[in-house]
């Protein structure tokens, strides 16, 4: 799925010393515990893995999230393109 950056909220990710993660462009938090946070951003689904993770600040209206803990992995999930092969090729 392609994301139109002109319509999406600005997405910025800042990691300080693997201990503090700040995000903008956050649309929703699907789930979280001390080792995993799954959220939706303006650029797709983002999974944060680590140890002792906790959400320090969240403001979904402003699209902001701050996480403390030891961040070990950040990964974006790309969704499969929708429509037939011909629609994807010739739009």
Question: Explain this structure to me?
Answer:
With 91 residues, the chain is mostly beta strands. It has a single domain (12-78), classed as Immunoglobulin-like (Sandwich), CATH 2.60.40. Helices cover 7% and strands 58% of the residues. The chain has one helix and six strands; from the N terminus they run E-E-E-E-E-E-H. It has one helix spanning 85-90; strands at 12-16, 20-24, 26-32, 36-41, 44-59, 64-77. The longest helix is centred in the last third of the chain and has 6 residues, at 85-90. The chain is elongated and about 45 Å long. The two termini are 13 Å apart. The model is unreliable at 1-6 (pLDDT under 50).
Structure described in brief:
The longest helix is centred in the last third of the chain and has 6 residues, at 85-90.
Strand content: over 45%
User: How many extended strands?
Assistant: 6
Rg calc: 15 Å
Please provide the ordered H/E string of secondary-structure elements: EEEEEEH
| Poorly predicted ranges | 1-6
| Tally of DSSP helical segments | 1
Number of domains: 1
Question: Tell me, what is the CATH class?
Answer: Mainly Beta
Oligomeric category:
single chain
Overall spatial form? elongated
Strand order of the largest sheet: 1-2-6-5-4-3
Query: Helicity range of the residues?
Result: under 10%
Tell me about the biggest sheet?
A: 6 strands, antiparallel
Tell me the CATH topology: Immunoglobulin-like
Structural class: mainly beta
The end-to-end span amounts to 13 Å
Please give the CATH architecture: Sandwich
Q: Mean pLDDT score, rounded?
A: 86
């Amino acid at each position: 799925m392609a994301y139109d950056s002109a319509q999406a909220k600005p997405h910025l990710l800042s990691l300080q010393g693997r201990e503090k993660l700040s995000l903008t462009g956050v649309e929703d938090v699907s789930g979280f515990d001390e080792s995993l946070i799954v959220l939706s951003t303006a650029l797709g689904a983002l999974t944060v893995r680590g140890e002792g993770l906790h959400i320090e600040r969240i403001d979904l209206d402003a699209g902001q999230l701050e996480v403390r803990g030891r961040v070990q992995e950040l990964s974006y999930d790309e969704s499969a393109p929708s429509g037939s092969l011909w629609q994807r090729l010739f739009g």
